[in-house]
Here is the input.
Amino acid sequence: MDEEDIPKTANISVFTPIIYLIILLSCFIAFSIIYRRRTVRNLQKIDPIFEENYPLIMYSILKDQYNDPNLSKEQKPHEKVMKAALLRRGVEAIRRSLKLKESESVYKSLYENGLIGDDIFKQYNIQVKFQELEIQEIARDCELYKKGWTANFFKVAQEVCFNEALRRRILIIEDRAKDLSDTWEYYEQEVEKIENIKKIDNTKASGVEKNPSA
Amino acid sequence: MEVTLQYNNTDKKISTPSTDEKLQKEIDQLNTLTSEIISNGSDVPPIATPENFNKDLSKMIKKLYEGGVQSFKQNKFEESVRQFTIGIEMINRRHKFEAFQGTLQELSMFLMSRTDANLKTKRYLDAFNDIDMLLSMQMCTPENFLRRGVANYFLGNYEAARADYQRGLAYDPNNRRLQDELETCLDKILEENGDYL
Here is the structure.
């Protein structure tokens, strides 16, 4: 009876808990890596709402050239070119943010009423997050060219954004006149066609009335 | 996306061998902005204020506007349209980082006056185009709705004209001119439908 009560002990190495912890941590890290990769892969599958961001691509190319130690001073873009390129990138970021802000209520009400699915609403939310990150990155880059420029940068970018929008509308006036003219001509022709058909129908009807035996 | 950019150190301009129209437009925008920053002289583009609004250009634009109005008063409507068009082109040449509000005010003045001149020269489509642009920029005044209504009326869009007059009257119910034009327009709609009061 006494022999049964004595707990059995086993000698284990001091490394056993350490190995246990290492295995546990490795599993956790592996899970985390796989999970993150899958999340990134899923994010990559989502189509962006906007088209290609050319100002961003152009700025990245110019920045690479600007920081390339193998290029001579003549081959590197001038600092003002870099500032203009960054400003253009900022203008595009503001334009996109404004577009997203404008459509926020539409997306929300459509989603709440079940008219769009989770995928589209997720696409919108990811785009919003992406724009926030883009603006943060622009703000960081501002400091590379002039200390404290960030404070004024977005005010200037907003002004440029509005002025460019106004210019786009002025420049489109002539093309718009042509389009409007074409549309109205088309409608006039259609109305004329309908009137001609009506006239023919009326003539036929009156002919039948005059000659009921026919 | 593969984009190739070439930089010319002499004129500080960017170019590309690509034929992509959108890319070309973006490059043009960038080159314009670069030259404006260089010509401005300051280290970075300044914040837009009424003080740094280009005053020389403002004087020239004002002169063109007064010239256009003068021609209009002398019944030289073609000349008036021409002067307003040049003025609009000049507004387009302002630096992009100049005050947007100032540019918008100038532009609205020119578009309104060019609409009047176009209505007088019976170019109703151009008049409609100008004033429609102005209304889409939230310049919602009874007079602007009257202008678009008149243009629509003479283009034969009577229903659209009626809507414009009614919207103008929503802003100013006692506007005599709008009331008269609406009455004429309603008569015309009845006539079109083979009816009368």
